[in-house]
Amino acid sequence: MTVNGAASREGTAQAEVTAEAVGRVLGTQAASPLSFWVGLEPGKVVQLDDVVVTRRDVPGYGPVLVAGVVTTVEARHEGAAYDSDVFLIADGALPAAVVEVAEVRVTRVEPEVFVPPLPGSKVFLASAGDRDQALYFDVMDRRIPIGMGRDGQPLYANFDFLDGTRGAHVSISGVSGVATKTSFATFLLYSIFNSGVLAGEAANTKALIFSVKGEDLLFLDHDNLRLDEKARIAYARLGLPAKPFGSVHVFAPPRPGDPNGVPHVSARTQGVSSFFWTLTEFCEEELLRFVFADADDERAGYSLLVGQVAARLKSWAEPVGDGGAVMVQGTACRTFSDLVELLSDQLQDEGTRQQWTGAQTPLGTVNAFLRRLRSAVRALSPIVRGDLPFYRNHSVKTSDAQVSIVDLHNLPERAQRFVVGVVLRGEFHRKESSGTARPLLFVVLDELNKYAPREGDSPIKEILLDVAERGRSLGVILIGAQQTASEVERRIVSNSAVRVAGRLDPAEAARSEYGWLPPAVRERATIAKPGTMFVAQPEIPVPLAVAFPFPAWATRPAEAAAQPVKAGADPFQGLPGVEEDIPPF
Protein backbone atom coordinates (compact mmCIF):
# COMPACT_ATOMS: atom_id res chain seq x y z
CA MET A 1 0.00 0.00 0.00
CA THR A 2 2.82 2.39 0.90
CA VAL A 3 4.79 1.50 -2.21
CA ASN A 4 1.79 2.04 -4.48
CA GLY A 5 0.98 5.33 -2.80
CA ALA A 6 4.55 6.51 -3.21
CA ALA A 7 4.56 5.53 -6.88
CA SER A 8 1.25 7.32 -7.40
CA ARG A 9 2.57 10.51 -5.75
CA GLU A 10 5.71 10.28 -7.85
CA GLY A 11 3.62 9.98 -11.05
CA THR A 12 1.52 12.96 -9.98
CA ALA A 13 4.59 15.03 -9.32
CA GLN A 14 6.04 14.05 -12.70
CA ALA A 15 2.79 15.05 -14.47
CA GLU A 16 2.86 18.42 -12.74
CA VAL A 17 6.45 19.02 -13.82
CA THR A 18 5.75 18.27 -17.50
CA ALA A 19 2.38 20.08 -17.68
CA GLU A 20 2.10 23.85 -17.89
CA ALA A 21 0.71 25.51 -14.76
CA VAL A 22 -1.71 28.28 -15.69
CA GLY A 23 -3.11 29.33 -12.34
CA ARG A 24 -4.65 28.28 -9.05
CA VAL A 25 -8.13 27.36 -7.84
CA LEU A 26 -9.83 30.53 -6.57
CA GLY A 27 -10.84 30.84 -2.97
CA THR A 28 -13.20 33.77 -3.52
CA GLN A 29 -15.55 31.59 -5.54
CA ALA A 30 -17.01 28.37 -4.20
CA ALA A 31 -15.44 25.27 -5.75
CA SER A 32 -17.49 22.10 -6.14
CA PRO A 33 -16.96 18.64 -7.62
CA LEU A 34 -18.87 19.88 -10.68
CA SER A 35 -17.28 23.26 -11.37
CA PHE A 36 -14.68 25.66 -10.05
CA TRP A 37 -12.94 28.93 -10.91
CA VAL A 38 -9.28 29.46 -11.70
CA GLY A 39 -7.25 32.61 -11.16
CA LEU A 40 -4.71 32.85 -13.97
CA GLU A 41 -1.09 33.61 -13.25
CA PRO A 42 0.32 36.80 -14.84
CA GLY A 43 1.32 36.15 -18.42
CA LYS A 44 -0.75 32.94 -18.66
CA VAL A 45 -3.74 32.61 -20.96
CA VAL A 46 -6.47 30.03 -21.35
CA GLN A 47 -9.29 30.14 -23.86
CA LEU A 48 -12.68 28.56 -24.15
CA ASP A 49 -12.57 24.77 -24.65
CA ASP A 50 -9.10 24.36 -23.15
CA VAL A 51 -8.82 21.23 -21.03
CA VAL A 52 -7.30 21.77 -17.58
CA VAL A 53 -6.59 19.51 -14.62
CA THR A 54 -5.90 19.84 -10.95
CA ARG A 55 -5.23 17.25 -8.27
CA ARG A 56 -6.04 16.78 -4.65
CA ASP A 57 -4.56 14.30 -2.23
CA VAL A 58 -7.57 12.79 -0.40
CA PRO A 59 -6.86 10.84 2.80
CA GLY A 60 -7.64 7.16 2.31
CA TYR A 61 -7.86 7.48 -1.49
CA GLY A 62 -4.62 9.08 -2.59
CA PRO A 63 -4.33 11.58 -5.47
CA VAL A 64 -7.65 12.45 -7.13
CA LEU A 65 -7.64 13.96 -10.63
CA VAL A 66 -10.22 16.66 -11.29
CA ALA A 67 -10.36 17.53 -14.99
CA GLY A 68 -12.60 19.90 -16.87
CA VAL A 69 -13.16 22.19 -19.82
CA VAL A 70 -12.93 25.99 -19.69
CA THR A 71 -16.42 27.39 -20.33
CA THR A 72 -15.98 31.08 -19.38
CA VAL A 73 -13.01 33.46 -19.31
CA GLU A 74 -13.27 36.89 -17.68
CA ALA A 75 -10.90 39.81 -17.11
CA ARG A 76 -11.49 42.72 -14.75
CA HIS A 77 -9.80 45.48 -12.76
CA GLU A 78 -9.49 44.63 -9.08
CA GLY A 79 -9.71 47.82 -7.09
CA ALA A 80 -12.00 49.74 -9.45
CA ALA A 81 -15.31 50.92 -8.03
CA TYR A 82 -16.74 52.91 -10.93
CA ASP A 83 -16.79 52.41 -14.67
CA SER A 84 -14.87 55.66 -15.14
CA ASP A 85 -12.03 54.32 -12.99
CA VAL A 86 -10.70 52.50 -16.03
CA PHE A 87 -9.33 55.78 -17.39
CA LEU A 88 -7.62 56.69 -14.12
CA ILE A 89 -6.11 53.22 -13.88
CA ALA A 90 -4.87 53.41 -17.47
CA ASP A 91 -3.19 56.77 -16.70
CA GLY A 92 -1.59 55.37 -13.53
CA ALA A 93 -3.53 57.72 -11.25
CA LEU A 94 -5.42 54.91 -9.50
CA PRO A 95 -3.81 51.68 -8.33
CA ALA A 96 -5.50 48.49 -9.55
CA ALA A 97 -4.58 45.05 -10.78
CA VAL A 98 -5.78 43.30 -13.90
CA VAL A 99 -7.13 39.88 -12.96
CA GLU A 100 -8.15 37.10 -15.34
CA VAL A 101 -10.29 34.22 -14.15
CA ALA A 102 -11.76 31.19 -15.89
CA GLU A 103 -14.71 28.97 -15.05
CA VAL A 104 -14.09 25.25 -15.46
CA ARG A 105 -16.86 22.72 -15.89
CA VAL A 106 -15.72 19.37 -14.51
CA THR A 107 -15.87 16.51 -17.00
CA ARG A 108 -14.19 13.72 -15.06
CA VAL A 109 -13.08 12.87 -11.55
CA GLU A 110 -10.68 9.93 -11.35
CA PRO A 111 -11.01 7.93 -9.18
CA GLU A 112 -14.62 8.83 -8.53
CA VAL A 113 -14.16 10.56 -5.21
CA PHE A 114 -16.36 13.58 -5.59
CA VAL A 115 -14.60 16.20 -3.53
CA PRO A 116 -14.03 19.83 -4.56
CA PRO A 117 -10.54 20.96 -5.55
CA LEU A 118 -8.91 22.95 -2.76
CA PRO A 119 -8.48 26.72 -3.14
CA GLY A 120 -4.91 27.54 -4.00
CA SER A 121 -4.28 24.22 -5.78
CA LYS A 122 -2.29 24.50 -8.98
CA VAL A 123 -4.19 24.11 -12.23
CA PHE A 124 -2.45 22.80 -15.34
CA LEU A 125 -3.19 22.68 -19.01
CA ALA A 126 -3.88 19.02 -19.66
CA SER A 127 -1.05 17.05 -21.18
CA ALA A 128 -1.79 14.37 -23.81
CA GLY A 129 -2.60 11.62 -21.30
CA ASP A 130 -4.63 13.86 -19.00
CA ARG A 131 -6.53 15.32 -21.96
CA ASP A 132 -7.52 11.86 -23.18
CA GLN A 133 -8.64 11.00 -19.66
CA ALA A 134 -10.57 14.26 -19.19
CA LEU A 135 -12.49 13.76 -22.45
CA TYR A 136 -12.93 9.97 -21.99
CA PHE A 137 -10.89 9.20 -25.11
CA ASP A 138 -8.91 6.68 -23.05
CA VAL A 139 -11.98 4.46 -22.59
CA MET A 140 -13.15 4.61 -26.21
CA ASP A 141 -12.16 1.23 -27.62
CA ARG A 142 -13.47 2.20 -31.04
CA ARG A 143 -13.14 5.89 -31.74
CA ILE A 144 -13.33 7.94 -34.91
CA PRO A 145 -11.78 11.39 -35.43
CA ILE A 146 -14.37 14.14 -35.83
CA GLY A 147 -12.02 17.12 -36.17
CA MET A 148 -9.56 19.24 -34.25
CA GLY A 149 -9.98 21.02 -30.93
CA ARG A 150 -8.99 24.61 -30.32
CA ASP A 151 -5.69 23.30 -28.99
CA GLY A 152 -4.94 21.78 -32.40
CA GLN A 153 -5.27 18.21 -31.14
CA PRO A 154 -7.66 15.57 -32.52
CA LEU A 155 -11.11 15.09 -31.03
CA TYR A 156 -12.97 11.80 -31.25
CA ALA A 157 -16.45 10.27 -31.11
CA ASN A 158 -17.16 6.86 -29.66
CA PHE A 159 -18.26 4.62 -32.53
CA ASP A 160 -20.26 2.51 -30.07
CA PHE A 161 -22.80 5.36 -30.06
CA LEU A 162 -22.97 5.43 -33.85
CA ASP A 163 -23.14 1.81 -34.96
CA GLY A 164 -25.95 0.74 -32.63
CA THR A 165 -23.82 -1.00 -30.02
CA ARG A 166 -24.81 1.49 -27.32
CA GLY A 167 -26.68 4.06 -29.36
CA ALA A 168 -27.17 5.32 -32.88
CA HIS A 169 -28.16 8.19 -35.15
CA VAL A 170 -26.84 11.75 -35.53
CA SER A 171 -28.82 15.00 -35.50
CA ILE A 172 -27.15 18.06 -37.08
CA SER A 173 -28.72 21.53 -36.79
CA GLY A 174 -27.76 24.93 -38.08
CA VAL A 175 -28.46 27.87 -40.35
CA SER A 176 -28.61 26.93 -44.02
CA GLY A 177 -25.53 27.90 -46.03
CA VAL A 178 -23.49 28.84 -42.96
CA ALA A 179 -23.56 25.86 -40.60
CA THR A 180 -21.89 23.45 -43.11
CA LYS A 181 -24.20 20.65 -41.99
CA THR A 182 -23.84 18.56 -45.13
CA SER A 183 -20.05 19.02 -45.18
CA PHE A 184 -19.79 17.75 -41.63
CA ALA A 185 -22.08 14.80 -42.39
CA THR A 186 -19.90 13.75 -45.33
CA PHE A 187 -16.73 14.22 -43.26
CA LEU A 188 -18.23 12.03 -40.54
CA LEU A 189 -18.95 9.33 -43.14
CA TYR A 190 -15.43 9.67 -44.54
CA SER A 191 -13.94 9.27 -41.06
CA ILE A 192 -16.04 6.16 -40.41
CA PHE A 193 -14.97 4.56 -43.69
CA ASN A 194 -11.26 5.47 -43.44
CA SER A 195 -10.36 5.45 -39.75
CA GLY A 196 -10.11 1.66 -39.53
CA VAL A 197 -12.90 1.39 -36.98
CA LEU A 198 -14.94 -0.82 -39.33
CA ALA A 199 -12.06 -3.27 -39.79
CA GLY A 200 -13.16 -6.10 -42.09
CA GLU A 201 -16.67 -4.65 -42.49
CA ALA A 202 -15.48 -1.49 -44.27
CA ALA A 203 -15.95 -2.83 -47.80
CA ASN A 204 -19.55 -3.90 -47.20
CA THR A 205 -20.69 -0.92 -45.12
CA LYS A 206 -22.82 1.42 -47.23
CA ALA A 207 -24.00 5.01 -47.22
CA LEU A 208 -27.10 6.41 -48.89
CA ILE A 209 -27.09 10.20 -49.39
CA PHE A 210 -30.07 12.20 -50.60
CA SER A 211 -28.77 15.31 -52.38
CA VAL A 212 -31.02 18.36 -52.71
CA LYS A 213 -28.43 21.14 -53.21
CA GLY A 214 -27.61 21.26 -56.88
CA GLU A 215 -24.86 18.95 -58.10
CA ASP A 216 -22.52 19.75 -55.20
CA LEU A 217 -22.53 16.21 -53.81
CA LEU A 218 -22.07 14.40 -57.09
CA PHE A 219 -18.27 14.56 -57.02
CA LEU A 220 -17.35 12.94 -53.72
CA ASP A 221 -15.01 10.59 -55.57
CA HIS A 222 -13.05 13.45 -57.19
CA ASP A 223 -10.00 15.17 -55.65
CA ASN A 224 -10.61 18.71 -54.45
CA LEU A 225 -8.48 21.17 -56.43
CA ARG A 226 -8.57 23.64 -53.52
CA LEU A 227 -7.06 21.26 -50.97
CA ASP A 228 -3.91 22.92 -49.60
CA GLU A 229 -0.97 21.72 -47.54
CA LYS A 230 -2.49 23.00 -44.30
CA ALA A 231 -5.53 20.76 -44.82
CA ARG A 232 -3.31 17.78 -45.69
CA ILE A 233 -1.44 18.23 -42.42
CA ALA A 234 -4.77 18.33 -40.55
CA TYR A 235 -5.82 15.02 -42.13
CA ALA A 236 -2.46 13.50 -41.18
CA ARG A 237 -2.89 14.60 -37.56
CA LEU A 238 -6.32 13.00 -37.54
CA GLY A 239 -4.88 9.77 -38.91
CA LEU A 240 -6.92 10.00 -42.11
CA PRO A 241 -5.77 9.97 -45.74
CA ALA A 242 -6.38 13.20 -47.65
CA LYS A 243 -8.22 11.70 -50.59
CA PRO A 244 -11.77 11.52 -51.96
CA PHE A 245 -14.29 8.75 -51.37
CA GLY A 246 -13.21 5.65 -53.19
CA SER A 247 -16.50 4.17 -54.38
CA VAL A 248 -19.42 6.41 -55.41
CA HIS A 249 -22.45 5.86 -57.65
CA VAL A 250 -24.97 8.55 -58.51
CA PHE A 251 -28.66 8.02 -59.23
CA ALA A 252 -30.54 10.83 -60.98
CA PRO A 253 -34.07 11.13 -62.36
CA PRO A 254 -34.56 10.94 -66.14
CA ARG A 255 -34.69 14.15 -68.12
CA PRO A 256 -38.30 15.26 -68.58
CA GLY A 257 -39.55 14.37 -72.04
CA ASP A 258 -36.49 12.28 -72.91
CA PRO A 259 -37.65 9.00 -74.52
CA ASN A 260 -34.39 7.27 -73.55
CA GLY A 261 -34.47 8.11 -69.85
CA VAL A 262 -31.05 9.83 -69.82
CA PRO A 263 -30.05 10.93 -66.27
CA HIS A 264 -30.87 14.57 -65.62
CA VAL A 265 -27.36 15.76 -64.66
CA SER A 266 -25.12 18.14 -66.54
CA ALA A 267 -21.68 18.08 -64.92
CA ARG A 268 -21.12 14.34 -64.46
CA THR A 269 -21.28 11.60 -67.09
CA GLN A 270 -19.58 8.57 -65.48
CA GLY A 271 -21.00 6.49 -62.66
CA VAL A 272 -24.51 7.89 -63.13
CA SER A 273 -27.71 5.90 -63.55
CA SER A 274 -31.26 7.11 -64.00
CA PHE A 275 -33.91 5.94 -61.58
CA PHE A 276 -37.65 5.62 -62.01
CA TRP A 277 -40.52 3.30 -61.09
CA THR A 278 -42.61 1.49 -63.64
CA LEU A 279 -46.38 1.62 -63.45
CA THR A 280 -46.27 -2.12 -62.71
CA GLU A 281 -44.13 -1.47 -59.63
CA PHE A 282 -46.26 1.53 -58.69
CA CYS A 283 -49.35 -0.67 -58.54
CA GLU A 284 -47.83 -3.88 -57.13
CA GLU A 285 -45.98 -2.08 -54.30
CA GLU A 286 -48.88 0.26 -53.45
CA LEU A 287 -46.79 3.38 -53.99
CA LEU A 288 -49.86 5.59 -54.33
CA ARG A 289 -49.68 6.46 -50.64
CA PHE A 290 -46.31 8.18 -51.24
CA VAL A 291 -47.96 10.46 -53.78
CA PHE A 292 -49.86 11.78 -50.75
CA ALA A 293 -46.77 12.08 -48.54
CA ASP A 294 -47.51 15.52 -47.16
CA ALA A 295 -48.63 15.94 -43.57
CA ASP A 296 -51.67 17.85 -44.88
CA ASP A 297 -52.72 14.79 -46.88
CA GLU A 298 -52.84 12.65 -43.77
CA ARG A 299 -55.10 15.15 -42.04
CA ALA A 300 -57.40 15.37 -45.03
CA GLY A 301 -60.53 13.25 -45.27
CA TYR A 302 -59.31 11.29 -48.27
CA SER A 303 -56.46 9.45 -46.46
CA LEU A 304 -58.62 6.30 -46.16
CA LEU A 305 -59.52 6.55 -49.83
CA VAL A 306 -55.82 6.51 -50.76
CA GLY A 307 -55.40 3.11 -49.14
CA GLN A 308 -58.53 1.72 -50.79
CA VAL A 309 -57.50 2.81 -54.29
CA ALA A 310 -53.94 1.54 -53.80
CA ALA A 311 -55.27 -1.88 -52.80
CA ARG A 312 -57.52 -2.01 -55.89
CA LEU A 313 -54.61 -1.12 -58.18
CA LYS A 314 -52.54 -3.89 -56.63
CA SER A 315 -55.31 -6.43 -57.26
CA TRP A 316 -56.50 -5.33 -60.68
CA ALA A 317 -53.44 -4.00 -62.51
CA GLU A 318 -51.84 -6.46 -64.94
CA PRO A 319 -48.45 -5.94 -66.66
CA VAL A 320 -48.53 -5.19 -70.38
CA GLY A 321 -45.44 -5.59 -72.59
CA ASP A 322 -41.89 -5.09 -71.38
CA GLY A 323 -42.04 -1.36 -70.62
CA GLY A 324 -43.75 -1.56 -67.26
CA ALA A 325 -47.17 -0.51 -68.56
CA VAL A 326 -50.32 -1.87 -66.92
CA MET A 327 -53.83 -2.90 -67.94
CA VAL A 328 -56.53 -1.82 -65.47
CA GLN A 329 -60.21 -2.59 -66.03
CA GLY A 330 -59.53 -3.16 -69.73
CA THR A 331 -57.65 0.12 -70.21
CA ALA A 332 -53.90 0.19 -70.98
CA CYS A 333 -51.83 2.82 -69.12
CA ARG A 334 -48.33 3.66 -70.34
CA THR A 335 -47.79 6.95 -68.51
CA PHE A 336 -48.60 8.24 -65.05
CA SER A 337 -50.99 10.68 -66.68
CA ASP A 338 -52.86 7.75 -68.27
CA LEU A 339 -53.25 6.11 -64.87
CA VAL A 340 -54.51 9.31 -63.26
CA GLU A 341 -57.06 9.82 -66.03
CA LEU A 342 -58.25 6.23 -65.60
CA LEU A 343 -58.75 6.73 -61.87
CA SER A 344 -60.51 10.01 -62.51
CA ASP A 345 -62.99 8.38 -64.90
CA GLN A 346 -63.59 5.41 -62.61
CA LEU A 347 -64.10 7.46 -59.45
CA GLN A 348 -66.36 10.04 -61.04
CA ASP A 349 -68.60 7.38 -62.56
CA GLU A 350 -71.48 6.49 -60.26
CA GLY A 351 -71.45 2.89 -61.53
CA THR A 352 -67.79 2.15 -60.79
CA ARG A 353 -67.00 4.44 -57.88
CA GLN A 354 -68.02 2.05 -55.12
CA GLN A 355 -65.92 -0.75 -56.64
CA TRP A 356 -62.84 1.41 -56.01
CA THR A 357 -63.78 2.99 -52.70
CA GLY A 358 -65.21 -0.14 -51.09
CA ALA A 359 -67.92 1.91 -49.38
CA GLN A 360 -70.19 4.87 -49.92
CA THR A 361 -67.80 7.83 -50.22
CA PRO A 362 -68.94 11.47 -50.44
CA LEU A 363 -68.32 13.04 -53.83
CA GLY A 364 -66.54 15.94 -52.16
CA THR A 365 -63.94 13.55 -50.69
CA VAL A 366 -63.44 11.91 -54.08
CA ASN A 367 -62.99 15.27 -55.79
CA ALA A 368 -60.45 16.40 -53.17
CA PHE A 369 -58.52 13.17 -53.72
CA LEU A 370 -58.56 13.64 -57.51
CA ARG A 371 -57.50 17.29 -57.34
CA ARG A 372 -54.49 16.31 -55.27
CA LEU A 373 -53.72 13.38 -57.57
CA ARG A 374 -53.94 15.46 -60.75
CA SER A 375 -51.60 18.07 -59.27
CA ALA A 376 -48.95 15.34 -58.96
CA VAL A 377 -48.93 14.40 -62.67
CA ARG A 378 -46.37 16.96 -63.77
CA ALA A 379 -44.06 16.27 -60.82
CA LEU A 380 -44.15 12.46 -60.98
CA SER A 381 -44.43 11.74 -64.70
CA PRO A 382 -40.62 11.60 -65.25
CA ILE A 383 -40.14 9.03 -62.46
CA VAL A 384 -43.35 6.95 -62.65
CA ARG A 385 -43.75 5.59 -66.16
CA GLY A 386 -44.43 2.57 -68.33
CA ASP A 387 -42.74 3.62 -71.56
CA LEU A 388 -39.11 2.54 -70.98
CA PRO A 389 -37.70 -0.99 -71.33
CA PHE A 390 -38.61 -2.90 -68.19
CA TYR A 391 -35.39 -4.95 -68.21
CA ARG A 392 -33.02 -2.00 -67.85
CA ASN A 393 -31.69 -1.10 -64.42
CA HIS A 394 -33.80 1.69 -62.98
CA SER A 395 -33.90 1.09 -59.25
CA VAL A 396 -31.99 2.93 -56.55
CA LYS A 397 -29.83 0.37 -54.80
CA THR A 398 -26.87 0.55 -52.45
CA SER A 399 -25.09 -2.56 -53.71
CA ASP A 400 -23.32 -0.82 -56.60
CA ALA A 401 -20.92 1.28 -54.51
CA GLN A 402 -19.94 2.15 -50.95
CA VAL A 403 -21.63 5.57 -51.28
CA SER A 404 -24.86 5.88 -53.26
CA ILE A 405 -26.10 9.40 -53.96
CA VAL A 406 -29.71 10.05 -54.94
CA ASP A 407 -29.84 13.39 -56.72
CA LEU A 408 -33.14 15.17 -56.07
CA HIS A 409 -32.35 18.78 -56.92
CA ASN A 410 -34.01 18.67 -60.36
CA LEU A 411 -37.26 17.29 -58.98
CA PRO A 412 -40.17 19.32 -57.59
CA GLU A 413 -40.72 19.04 -53.86
CA ARG A 414 -43.66 16.70 -54.38
CA ALA A 415 -41.48 14.28 -56.33
CA GLN A 416 -38.65 14.61 -53.80
CA ARG A 417 -40.97 13.42 -51.04
CA PHE A 418 -42.08 10.48 -53.18
CA VAL A 419 -38.48 9.39 -53.91
CA VAL A 420 -37.30 9.72 -50.31
CA GLY A 421 -40.27 7.77 -48.97
CA VAL A 422 -40.12 4.93 -51.50
CA VAL A 423 -36.33 4.52 -51.39
CA LEU A 424 -36.21 4.58 -47.58
CA ARG A 425 -39.01 2.05 -47.34
CA GLY A 426 -37.24 -0.26 -49.79
CA GLU A 427 -33.89 -0.10 -47.99
CA PHE A 428 -35.49 -0.51 -44.57
CA HIS A 429 -37.43 -3.59 -45.72
CA ARG A 430 -34.27 -4.99 -47.31
CA LYS A 431 -32.43 -4.68 -43.99
CA GLU A 432 -35.37 -6.23 -42.15
CA SER A 433 -35.42 -9.23 -44.46
CA SER A 434 -31.66 -9.76 -44.20
CA GLY A 435 -32.04 -10.73 -40.54
CA THR A 436 -28.76 -9.11 -39.45
CA ALA A 437 -27.65 -5.60 -38.54
CA ARG A 438 -24.34 -6.01 -40.33
CA PRO A 439 -23.19 -4.56 -42.63
CA LEU A 440 -24.35 -1.11 -41.59
CA LEU A 441 -26.26 1.32 -43.78
CA PHE A 442 -25.82 5.06 -43.08
CA VAL A 443 -28.59 7.29 -44.43
CA VAL A 444 -27.83 11.01 -44.83
CA LEU A 445 -30.98 13.12 -45.17
CA ASP A 446 -31.00 16.91 -45.23
CA GLU A 447 -34.06 19.08 -44.51
CA LEU A 448 -35.32 16.53 -42.00
CA ASN A 449 -37.90 19.03 -40.74
CA LYS A 450 -39.58 18.77 -44.16
CA TYR A 451 -39.85 14.98 -44.12
CA ALA A 452 -40.55 14.44 -40.42
CA PRO A 453 -42.27 17.60 -39.15
CA ARG A 454 -43.30 17.86 -35.54
CA GLU A 455 -46.96 18.23 -36.39
CA GLY A 456 -49.04 15.83 -38.47
CA ASP A 457 -48.38 12.37 -39.89
CA SER A 458 -47.27 11.09 -43.27
CA PRO A 459 -45.91 7.84 -44.76
CA ILE A 460 -42.37 9.27 -44.82
CA LYS A 461 -42.58 10.35 -41.20
CA GLU A 462 -43.70 6.85 -40.23
CA ILE A 463 -40.66 5.35 -41.93
CA LEU A 464 -38.25 7.84 -40.37
CA LEU A 465 -39.73 7.15 -36.95
CA ASP A 466 -39.25 3.46 -37.58
CA VAL A 467 -35.63 4.09 -38.54
CA ALA A 468 -35.07 6.22 -35.42
CA GLU A 469 -36.65 3.69 -33.05
CA ARG A 470 -35.78 0.34 -34.64
CA GLY A 471 -32.98 1.19 -37.06
CA ARG A 472 -30.34 0.66 -34.39
CA SER A 473 -31.18 -3.03 -34.16
CA LEU A 474 -31.36 -3.38 -37.94
CA GLY A 475 -28.11 -1.58 -38.72
CA VAL A 476 -29.77 1.46 -40.34
CA ILE A 477 -28.17 4.63 -38.98
CA LEU A 478 -29.78 8.01 -39.70
CA ILE A 479 -27.62 11.12 -40.06
CA GLY A 480 -30.28 13.82 -40.23
CA ALA A 481 -29.68 17.51 -40.85
CA GLN A 482 -32.09 20.38 -40.41
CA GLN A 483 -32.11 24.14 -39.97
CA THR A 484 -34.45 23.96 -37.00
CA ALA A 485 -34.49 20.97 -34.66
CA SER A 486 -37.51 22.54 -32.95
CA GLU A 487 -39.59 21.68 -36.04
CA VAL A 488 -38.52 18.02 -36.24
CA GLU A 489 -40.47 15.15 -34.65
CA ARG A 490 -39.27 14.93 -31.03
CA ARG A 491 -38.83 11.15 -31.03
CA ILE A 492 -36.39 11.32 -33.93
CA VAL A 493 -34.22 13.95 -32.25
CA SER A 494 -34.40 12.26 -28.84
CA ASN A 495 -33.25 8.95 -30.34
CA SER A 496 -30.10 10.56 -31.76
CA ALA A 497 -27.14 9.58 -29.57
CA VAL A 498 -24.86 12.21 -31.14
CA ARG A 499 -26.11 15.78 -31.52
CA VAL A 500 -24.33 18.46 -33.50
CA ALA A 501 -24.94 22.19 -33.89
CA GLY A 502 -23.26 24.62 -36.25
CA ARG A 503 -24.15 28.26 -36.60
CA LEU A 504 -27.59 28.78 -35.02
CA ASP A 505 -30.18 31.49 -35.40
CA PRO A 506 -30.46 33.30 -32.02
CA ALA A 507 -34.21 32.65 -31.76
CA GLU A 508 -33.73 28.96 -32.60
CA ALA A 509 -30.85 28.63 -30.11
CA ALA A 510 -33.19 29.71 -27.31
CA ARG A 511 -35.49 26.71 -27.89
CA SER A 512 -35.64 23.87 -25.40
CA GLU A 513 -34.44 21.40 -28.07
CA TYR A 514 -30.95 22.82 -27.54
CA GLY A 515 -30.93 22.19 -23.81
CA TRP A 516 -27.89 19.96 -24.35
CA LEU A 517 -25.91 23.12 -25.11
CA PRO A 518 -24.75 25.04 -22.00
CA PRO A 519 -25.79 28.73 -22.03
CA ALA A 520 -22.30 29.96 -22.96
CA VAL A 521 -22.08 27.50 -25.84
CA ARG A 522 -25.53 28.53 -27.09
CA GLU A 523 -24.32 32.11 -27.33
CA ARG A 524 -21.17 31.00 -29.14
CA ALA A 525 -23.22 28.98 -31.62
CA THR A 526 -24.90 32.18 -32.84
CA ILE A 527 -21.50 33.52 -34.02
CA ALA A 528 -19.78 30.26 -34.98
CA LYS A 529 -17.82 30.35 -38.22
CA PRO A 530 -18.38 27.81 -41.01
CA GLY A 531 -16.45 24.64 -40.22
CA THR A 532 -16.97 24.90 -36.45
CA MET A 533 -19.42 22.44 -34.93
CA PHE A 534 -20.45 21.72 -31.34
CA VAL A 535 -20.70 17.97 -30.84
CA ALA A 536 -22.39 16.31 -27.87
CA GLN A 537 -22.12 12.59 -27.20
CA PRO A 538 -23.37 10.58 -24.21
CA GLU A 539 -19.98 9.80 -22.68
CA ILE A 540 -18.68 13.38 -22.47
CA PRO A 541 -20.54 15.78 -20.14
CA VAL A 542 -19.86 18.89 -22.26
CA PRO A 543 -20.18 19.52 -26.00
CA LEU A 544 -16.88 19.63 -27.87
CA ALA A 545 -16.08 22.57 -30.15
CA VAL A 546 -14.83 20.86 -33.28
CA ALA A 547 -13.15 22.31 -36.37
CA PHE A 548 -13.19 19.74 -39.16
CA PRO A 549 -10.72 20.02 -42.05
CA PHE A 550 -11.44 21.29 -45.52
CA PRO A 551 -12.95 18.46 -47.61
CA ALA A 552 -10.42 16.41 -49.58
CA TRP A 553 -13.23 15.60 -52.04
CA ALA A 554 -14.90 18.04 -54.40
CA THR A 555 -17.93 19.74 -52.88
CA ARG A 556 -19.00 21.42 -56.12
CA PRO A 557 -18.30 20.84 -59.83
CA ALA A 558 -15.76 23.69 -60.02
CA GLU A 559 -13.56 21.98 -57.39
CA ALA A 560 -13.53 18.56 -59.05
CA ALA A 561 -10.26 17.33 -60.48
CA ALA A 562 -10.52 15.17 -63.58
CA GLN A 563 -10.51 11.46 -62.84
CA PRO A 564 -8.03 9.26 -64.69
CA VAL A 565 -9.77 6.92 -67.10
CA LYS A 566 -9.25 3.36 -65.92
CA ALA A 567 -8.07 0.74 -68.37
CA GLY A 568 -11.05 -0.94 -69.96
CA ALA A 569 -13.49 1.66 -68.62
CA ASP A 570 -16.40 2.61 -70.82
CA PRO A 571 -16.19 6.35 -71.59
CA PHE A 572 -19.91 6.31 -72.42
CA GLN A 573 -20.94 4.91 -69.03
CA GLY A 574 -24.05 6.67 -67.76
CA LEU A 575 -25.44 7.22 -71.24
CA PRO A 576 -28.09 4.88 -72.70
CA GLY A 577 -26.67 2.10 -74.81
CA VAL A 578 -28.01 0.79 -78.08
CA GLU A 579 -29.78 -2.05 -76.36
CA GLU A 580 -31.49 0.42 -74.03
CA ASP A 581 -32.97 2.59 -76.75
CA ILE A 582 -36.67 2.29 -77.38
CA PRO A 583 -37.26 0.49 -80.70
CA PRO A 584 -38.68 2.77 -83.41
CA PHE A 585 -41.60 0.40 -84.01
From TrEMBL:
Coiled-coil regions, chain positions: none
Signal sequence, renumbered to the chain: none
Transmembrane segments: none
Keyword field contains DNA repair: no
InterPro entries reported in the protein's UniProt record: P-loop_NTPase, T4SS_component
Domain of life: Bacteria
Segments of this protein annotated with the region Disordered: 564-585
Key words, A-Z: ATP-binding, Nucleotide-binding
An annotated Gene Ontology molecular function: ATP binding
Protein name: ATP-binding protein
